[in-house]
Amino acid sequence: MTHHVILGAGPAGVIAAETIRKHAPADRITLVGDEPEPPYSRMAIPYLLIGHIDEAGTHLRKTADHYERLRIERVQGQATAVDTSARTVRLDDGHTLTYDRLLIATGSRPARPPIPGIDLPGVHHCWTLADARAIMERAKPGARVLQLGAGFIGCIIMEALQQRGVTLTIVEMGDRMVPRMMGPAAGGMIRDWCEAKGVAVHTGTRLEAIEPGAPLNVRLSNGHAVAADLVIIAAGVKPAIGFLENSGIRCLQGVLTDEHMQTNVPGVYAAGDCAEAFDKVSGTTIVSAIQPNAADQARVAALNMVGQRAELRGVTQINVLDTLGLISTSFGNWQGVPGGDRVERVDAEHHKVLSLCFDGDVMVGCNSVGWTDHVGALRGLVEGKVRLGVWKRELMQDPTRFMAAYLATAQAQSRWAGAADTRRR
């Protein structure tokens, strides 16, 4: 009987376990999670903070006996080492698991900046259900909350906090909000929008120290001091792969995988936020902390673990963010490529930015603020690597015509490809 050990009980780990069970009814499956709660979605935590769901609503599977029915053995523990020669995993409680196939789906850990006072009571990450409970205890209406970080995750947390009725201050080390998703004009517009909604925003600013007291006193690098009843650290995440040191499993930013989600060690796979997989748009390997990618990677890994050959189509570089009612999107290589063209249209009056990047006549990336109609066409142009021909010049003159460009080029090329396939058959 083949024993599959899955490290990580988030969406990737759960989907992989279920996929293995579907295709290998007799195999043994052990799912290792490092928290006491049933497997849950971190992306549901903001909805818990708002009050739209209770803790049970964050659970990935809603029936209490789901894992027992599928004969998926759940173990609470955190991996501390992997021995690929002996095919064993050591856990933090001293136990050792032996595996035939191993899936690393340990996700990410919140970054922990070296800030004096970061361990004080009232300072929390917003990553676990335990964090959420502590935040809800302090984030009462009127409470003064300071949040470090205005990236993608930080903006989602900010949305939930504002709906709790707190007085909110955001501190971002980058020169704009959402700096890893938005260019200067777009990030600046999101900042203006948040400030108009009553949020104090400090960009290009660090937390120098958090000083004890009731309230806490937070000193900023721009000379300001902010009184806070609660400080939230949302300064980004890193793949949780430290336990793989000296394992022989190759890691760059994340666990490096091939198109089958297998690592350089046969029988060892990775999926989700900790995996570094090939992205067909950029032509490089990337870590993509996006749940749809995690699900795709988990299914591909699981099928290969049970001997069914499957390949990952690619990593989707897509972010769609709602910041206090302002929608922003980012697809592909929004920063552009060396020697490529770029066009940007800013409509400050209507809170809109549209930025398109090209490599020759192919759109390789884009980002937008305030656009909600037909943004799927932007994604289609980028992911489809559509040759725009004369439409590239049209978009350089008026980027808002992207839907017309999509209809004229992507659909036409799709019809041509379909006809060619028919002729080949």
Topology:
Blueprint: E1 3-7, H1 11-23, E2 28-33, H2 45-50, H3 66-69, E3 72-76, E4 79-83, E5 88-91, E6 96-98, E7 101-104, E8 108-110, E9 123-125, H4 129-138, E10 144-148, H5 152-163, E11 167-172, H6 184-196, E12 200-203, E13 207-211, E14 216-220, E15 225-228, E16 230-233, E17 237-239, E18 255-256, E19 268-270, E20 275-279, E21 284-287, H7 291-305, E22 318-323, E23 326-332, E24 342-347, E25 352-359, E26 362-369, H8 375-383, H9 390-397, H10 402-424
Parallel strand pairs: 1-2, 1-7, 2-3, 7-19, 9-16, 10-11, 10-16, 11-12, 18-20
Antiparallel strand pairs: 4-5, 5-6, 8-17, 13-14, 14-15, 20-21, 22-23, 23-26, 24-25, 25-26
Helix pairs in contact: 1-7, 8-10, 9-10
Descriptive overview:
The chain is of the alpha/beta class. It folds into three domains: 3-109 and 238-305, FAD/NAD(P)-binding domain (3-Layer(bba) Sandwich); 123-235, FAD/NAD(P)-binding domain (3-Layer(bba) Sandwich), CATH 3.50.50.60; 325-424, Enolase-like, domain 1. It has helices at residues 11-23, 45-50, 66-69, 129-138, 152-163, 184-196, 291-305, 375-383, 390-397, 402-424; strands at residues 3-7, 28-33, 72-76, 79-83, 88-91, 96-98, 101-104, 108-110, 123-125, 144-148, 167-172, 200-203, 207-211, 216-220, 225-228, 230-233, 237-239, 255-256, 268-270, 275-279, 284-287, 318-323, 326-332, 342-347, 352-359, 362-369. The strands form seven sheets. A five-stranded parallel β-sheet has the order 3-2-1-7-19. Strands 9-16-10-11-12 form a five-stranded parallel β-sheet, covered by helices on one side. Strands 22-23-26-25-24 form a five-stranded antiparallel β-sheet, sandwiched between helices. The protein starts with a strand and ends with a helix. It comes from Tepidimonas fonticaldi.
